[in-house]
Fold this sequence. Notes:
Blueprint: E1 3-7, H1 12-23, E2 27-32, E3 42-44, H2 50-56, E4 62-65, H3 77-97, E5 102-106, H4 136-153, E6 158-164, H5 170-184, H6 212-224, E7 231-236, H7 247-254, H8 264-269, H9 279-285, H10 293-305
Parallel strand pairs: 1-2, 1-4, 2-3, 4-5, 5-6, 6-7
Amino acid sequence: MNRVLLTGGSGRLGRYVHTALVAQGFDVRNFDKVGCGSDVDQIQADILDRESLQSAMADRDMVIHLAALDAAVSATEQAFFEINVQGTWNVLEAAEKTNVQRVVLCSSVAALGIGDDILPDYLPIDETHPCRPRQAYGLSKQVAETVGQCFARRGHLEVVCLRPAFIVFPDLVIATAQTLARQDGIEWSCDLPQHSNALNEPLTATRSFIAPADAADGFVAAVRAELSASWRLYFAVAPWSMSPLPTLERAQAMGIPASAVQDPDRYRADPNASMFSTTQAERDLGWHARSTFEFLLAEALKGHNA
């Protein structure tokens, strides 16, 4: 049961997931509009092409569905909804028709709608927290999750959904650190370059993040895990904030009342602990992130100065 169809495998996260799957011995087929090398088993097609999807899954055991419009892409609200929701429906429909065992969906913490003006009900945030998105991207992810639950209830598919936080790709690390310095008054222990690529999206209000390699490992874990239910939802978030500012100070700056902190001991033990809980992913998938933001920054600076 190691034959995986990976949609969006040519994308930024997709390349990490493809590499992680191959390293773990999976037989991977890439499904993407863009090719990723002549030595890769791949089908170049769109996730809105239902016939191509069904053909691509004919001999697959599992599907990891990454193909979507990302929040950082400049697109219309209609495009976010059509591609992210209809594309997810198409993938699940094709998987059901071809007797795929499990589909792993890529959602986002954006489905919650949490921001500087929409505060979490409590900390740490877990998978039972209500979703209140106001933007098309977050709404598209919330609706895609509901589509996944629908197919799981039919009884023919296992559906696992991961919600990554802001994925800090190598080309974004230095710009993210510079933005943190400006917005949070962070004084880093290392000297940052004067110029770097601009950060084209706002920082997450919760300062949550995940390294791309850690996110990729999460998707591999979701394929491997033995699960007791047909629907599972997990946060794929680093257990630390990307800001060295103590998390409860950041929460106070956001306007989150102290009474909303349900586990204050967590933040006493680790002042930099994430606003999100990954307890369920650690328990069920045996997965946890390894890379701190400081580690990613050190690696980025090595590459910048090389």
